[in-house]
């Protein structure tokens, strides 16, 4: 049975720049691709956001940030029309500013 060191054997013959590029390339495989949202979903999300702002309901917002999808659970504080961002206050009283184009899904929190 041959027992070699696998990839470690070849890294000593590679330039550090190449090793870094290979590691970055492997890291990019874990990134999520941004999904397109259809008109019907946009209309539904708009209705949920409007109702949550009017009645102070808690929402769960999925948004795209740093090549991955993240969840924010909280109340919508207000809509910044100039910057096109939602200001959301979570249960730890932290303010999240989410650009409207980064939002992938909005649901009411039970």
UniProtKB/TrEMBL annotation:
It comes from the Bacteria. This is YolD-like family protein. It comes from Cytobacillus citreus.
């Amino acid at each position: 049975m041959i027992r070699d060191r696998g990839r470690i054997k070849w890294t000593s013959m590679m330039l550090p720049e190449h090793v870094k590029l290979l590691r970055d390339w492997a890291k990019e495989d874990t990134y999520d691709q941004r999904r397109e949202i259809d008109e019907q979903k946009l209309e539904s999300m708009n209705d949920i956001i409007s109702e949550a702002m009017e009645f102070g309901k808690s929402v769960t917002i999925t948004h795209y940030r740093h090549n991955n999808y993240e969840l924010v659970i909280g109340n919508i504080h207000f809509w910044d029309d100039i910057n096109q961002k939602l200001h959301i206050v979570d249960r730890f009283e932290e303010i999240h500013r989410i650009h409207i184009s980064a939002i992938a899904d909005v649901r009411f929190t039970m």
